Amino acid sequence: MKRVAILISGGGSNMVALAKSMTGDHPARPCLVLSNVPGAGGLAKAAEMGIPTAVVDHRDFKGDREAFERAMIAAIDPHAPDVIAMAGFMRILTPAFIGHYAGRMLNIHPSLLPKYRGLNTHLRAIEAGDAEAGCSVHEVTAELDGGPVLGQARVPVQPGDTPETLAARILACEHALYPAVLRRFVEGERGFLSL
């Protein structure tokens, strides 16, 4: 049985979707939910699901990213995860941290990568006049939102869409896509999945 540590910064809706999927005959189980934000809503949700939680507050490290990441590794490694799943974890990680978990890290991003890496993806898609938007699950590498894309889900951009309405439709797709890609990943499948 593979072990999955999930990193969050907020409400944890993708974490919940991942954790709920890891039941029954699923080849993995969540072993930890870690947040960089004390009081993040996802921590309470994880605790209610019986998943161990940890907090490493990045603000305690006064901008020292290496020290922050060393503290994260110290919190994560005792749980012996096979996979690190970033689910709304809003910190850019250094190559040293990514290298520590090389080949074992996934992230969900709210755009059709390689379009719109970084933030404000929904607004950028609308302003560009894109006919469709969506989400991508990718392997994490040292290049921001630049690792191999393992799956995508697409939604049409509708007339009158705002970043909020588009985000809501894409979030529903994220909750289906991420668990599907995670399962394939822990089973050793690295091919592309389209939902």
Walk me through this protein's architecture.
- The active site is at residue 109.
- By secondary structure, the protein is an alpha/beta fold.
- It has 2 domains: 1-102, Formyl transferase, N-terminal domain (Rossmann fold), CATH 3.40.50; 108-195, Rossmann fold.
- The chain is built from 6 helices and 8 strands; from the N terminus they run βαβαβαβαβαββαβ.
- The radius of gyration is 16 Å and the shape is globular.
- The model has no long low-confidence stretch (mean pLDDT 97).
Comma- or semicolon-separated keywords:
Rossmann fold; GART; purine biosynthesis; GART_AS; Formyl_transf_N; 34% helix; 195 residues; single chain; 2 domains; alpha/beta
What is the structure about, briefly put?
By secondary structure, the chain is of the alpha/beta class. The chain has helices at residues 13-21, 41-48, 65-76, 95-100, 121-127, 163-186, and strands at residues 2-8, 28-35, 53-55, 83-86, 105-109, 132-139, 149-156, 193-194.
